[in-house]
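Sequence in, structure out. First:
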Amino acid sequence: MKTIQSRHLRMNDQQLREHIEALLFVEGAMSKKELAKLLDVALEQVESASVSLRDASAGRGIAVVDEGKTLELRTSPSVAEKIEALRREELSRELGK
């Protein structure tokens, strides 16, 4: 397992993925450059971690999506119908008040 050296943080690949995933959970989407700067790692390390995160999220309800310069945490297309039904139900309850 590779260890990432930085001025402020020392983390292995798994820890980097955890940090990125947590930041995306909070923010929804972030640029790769912003993640690299915030985590004090090389952009290439964010790129590598994003591939691992994307692959690990395949077949799950939440997906890490690489939009080129940004990473985004989204719900998977396979659950879109259920989420849309939930949103419609919530909206109709709000309108009925």
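Second:
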Amino acid sequence: MDQFDLVDADEAAKNKLRKLVSASKNPELCERLGVPIPRSLLFESEEVVVGRKLAEAFIAESGLPSFVVERRRDDPEFLDRVRKNLDLAKGKSPSIL
């Protein structure tokens, strides 16, 4: 059982995320097979809660440092926070922003 099992979401989507976690944990295997590891991943879901829970499960399973930036209404400093966290994430690469 893993963190994805705790999320009520499409099994195909969860399996794709499991494969990405596996690739992030075994980059040498991916290199040998000639499979590129994605440098970015955008979580998008019509159901906000499901998307968030999948992202949280991905972060937990990956074991990578993570940086979360949430946008609030009327948030003029959002881009500044994204830039700041992007710099932090680059310094901890590989990481999740």
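Remark: The first helix runs from residue 11 to 25.
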